[in-house]
Request: fold
Amino acid sequence: MPLMLLGVVPVTLLFYISLTSFEIGYPWSKHEFVGLANYYRLFSGRETEFWPALRLSIVVATVSVVIKFLIGLGVAVLLNRKLKGEYLVVAMLLLPMAVNPAIAGLMWKLMFSFDFGIINVLVERVTGAKVVWLGQNYALFSVLVVLVWMHFPLSALMLLAGLRGIAPEPLEAAQLDGCSTRQVFWWIVLPQLKPVIVSSSLFQAILAFQVFGPIYTMTDGGPGNATEILPIYIYKAAFGIGAMGISAAAAIILVSIIMALTAAMMVAGRQKQ
Reply:
């Protein structure tokens, strides 16, 4: 019950604020009830930065989930062979997940620095030129690199657990029947991994829609709006221009997306059972 209150009460208050004209700098007693006007402003495009931020959030979530799945699957397949030093590799995989997201963003911001970042040092030695990684052209790519680095270990570990839960008998029987390793993996292993793939991908999508710390510390949504995803837009609307009603409405939309993804993940989990 207390845990439910910790979730329900803030969201209820947030929803109420989204129905008001409350702005930072004005007394709470001065706010007016405006109903769904804030949502209309968002969806009608009058808040010009909302739709680009939402679209960018969808793009970041989609691209990062696909990349994290592919890398995670490759790592899981390698670890499933029970190589020497497996536990050391797993421990190293957990390191990105243990780093505070804001600290991870600062660390990568230093690494991507144009003047003295280690990445540009290596690039300059190979190509003879430096790259403005956090500039207009490459900022989104740099952010995606950080998000993949932070979260792909989770996909790898979930897929590894799924691989080790597959009974070996069907695989051995298929190999005796003359199937190649690729055919066994494509037609037997992947179908049995489908519930894990769906669950891990949905969970990664939830993480991608919630991400804030790394992008805020790396680019603050810039340059321009190149990396301004929905959580960054919500923060700027609230504490940049003080429009708490608009910010709360955008936050409720984000919460709704995350709740839908969570419900889909729970359904996928029940189907697995």
Remarks:
- The chain has one domain: 2-272.
